[in-house]
Amino acid sequence: MAQAAAVAKPPPSTAQPPPPAKGPRRGRRRVGATPRRLPYLLIAPAALLMLGFIAYPVISVFYYSLRHYNPTKPWRNGFAGLDNFVTAFTDDPEFWHTLGFSLQWVAVEVVLQLLLGLALALLVNQTFVGRAMARALVFSPWAVSGVLTSTIWLLIFNSQTGISRYLADVGIGSYGTSWLSDTGTVFPAVVVAELWRGVPFFAILILADLQSVSKDLYEAAEVDGASRWRQFFHITLPHLKDAIILSTLLRAVWEFNNVDLLYTLTGGGPAGETTTLPLRIASIAVDSHDFGYASALTAIAFVILLFCSLLYLRLSKFGGQDK
User: Fold this and answer.
1) ∠112-125-251 over CA atoms, to 5°?
2) If DSSP states are collapsed to H, E and C, what string results for the chain?
3) Integer Cα distance of 263 and 243 in angstroms
4) Residues 276-305: pLDDT tens digits?
5) What span, in angstroms and rounded, lies between the C-alpha atoms of 187 and 255?
6) For residue 189, how many other CB atoms are within 10 A of its CB?
7) According to the model, what pLDDT value does residue 12 have?
8) Does residue 8 come out as left (phi exceeding 0), alpha (psi in the -120 to 50 range) or beta?
């Protein structure tokens, strides 16, 4: 019995083995957690570049707008205060003429481009044979540069080899007619040229938004007996509201600042009939070297565009939910 007790094994121990040693918490936090400042550090270079290329020119324009600055007449340079602005509003009739034409140009172009772009977007959104080719043809003018567009339309409006000669061959008009030199035809001519370039912009944006409209809405409307016009006004247009507001605002700003096409086609003529405010500013700065007065006109145009943009977004309730 004693030998059996001596040989008996002791009961198993209930003690748990010690847990493995843990590494330093500080190192684990650095590896697993992303610093909060990292996103801001990553976008800092782009933000600094935007600040340099956008903020600095704007500040410079407002600075020079308060000065008389003409490199060819340095003895007249100096602080001007509000003299440049007073001159623009009271002693420069060309300012009001160019501003009025700029507003007319923007209104005509944006409205026509919107209507034609909407019609083309609805057309190429349908299913038909050759739709891919039709879309390519509709969007191709947007890929052409402004200078090349102007060159194309200069050839089209050429009095000797352009469209006016072929119209004269069939008895419409007379030979040698220059649409860009006649005050009665120059505005419709430049409007058509800009439409060719601007309509694809609206067509692209509106077509992209049309792709996201659910087909179930149209099917439900057809079941309820809604006509195509009712579907358009109650489904399509409300869905395109934000896209139309954004595209018209962007295009209005671009058309107001349009310089390349009008300058290449007409140079602001004939007799100043197609001179916009940006063309007037470019003429004063480049031809007359009066950078102080040109900066004042630029500041006025900046304030006009800013005010109209904010008012337009406010009245249109851009991004808001319709009640």
Assistant:
1) 30
2) CHHHHHHCCCCCCCCCCCCCCCCCHHHHHHHHCCCCCHHHHHHHHHHHHHHHHHHHHHHHHHHHCCEECCCCCHHHCEECCCHHHHHHHHHCHHHHHHHHHHHHHHHHHHHHHHHHHHHHHHHHCCCCCCHHHHHHHHHHHHHCCHHHHHHHHHHHCCCCCCHHHHHHHCCCCCCCCCCCCCCCCHHHHHHHHHHHHHHHHHHHHHHHHHCCCCHHHHHHHHHCCCCHHHHHHHHHHHHCHHHHHHHHHHHHHHHHCCCHHHHHHCCCCCCCCCCCHHHHHHHHHHCCCCHHHHHHHHHHHHHHHHHHHHHHHHHHCCCCCCC
3) 30
4) 999 999 999 988 899 999 999 999 999 999
5) 14
6) 20
7) 54
8) beta
Report the sign of the C-alpha dihedral through residues 100, 97, 265, 189, in that order.
positive
| Whether pTM exceeds 0.85 | no
Q: Which whole-number Å values give the CA distances from 25 to 20, 21, 36, 257, 266, in the listed order?
A: 14, 12, 19, 59, 73
